[in-house]
Amino acid sequence: MFYYTYVLKSKKDGKLYVGFCEVLKLRLQEHQSGLVKSTKNRRPWELVYFEACKNKINAINREKQLKTGFGRAYLKRRIKDL
């Protein structure tokens, strides 16, 4: 079983959202349908990046890393159209 750290880009305002989950497809559906309070006003979303982690702790730590300035810079280098 894997856990996923993912990055969404709002098609409404172009801003990023970083999160983690166990079932990526289900979590994306929750974001798109407005079930996630913190993202419902910035729909629709586009999945622009994700990583698979072997356990929940690694996924949480990676999410925290990607939310830092260094993590945002990494994402900009990794994903050219951000």
- Can you tell me the residue ranges where pLDDT is under 50 for at least 5 consecutive residues? none
Distance between the termini: 30 Å
Order of helices and strands: EEHEHH
Q: Mean pLDDT, nearest integer?
A: 96
Enumerate how many helices there are, as a single number. Answer: 3
What is the radius of gyration computed over CA atoms, rounded to a whole number of angstroms?
12 Å
What percent of residues adopt helix (DSSP H or I)?
25-40%
**Alpha-beta classification:** alpha+beta
Number of strands: 3
Q: Tell me, briefly, the overall form.
A: globular
Approximate strand percentage? 25-35%
Strand order of the largest sheet: 2-1-3
Oligomeric state of shown chains? single chain
Description of the structure:
The protein is an alpha+beta fold and 82 residues long. Helix content is 37%, strand content 28%. The protein has three helices and three strands; from the N terminus they run ββαβαα. It has helices spanning 24-32, 56-66, 69-78; strands at residues 3-10, 16-21, 45-53. The protein has a three-stranded antiparallel beta sheet. The longest helix has 11 residues, at 56-66. The termini are far apart. The mean pLDDT is 96.
Describe the structure concisely for a colleague.
This protein is of the alpha+beta class and 82 residues long. The chain has helices at residues 24-32, 56-66, 69-78, and strands at residues 3-10, 16-21, 45-53.
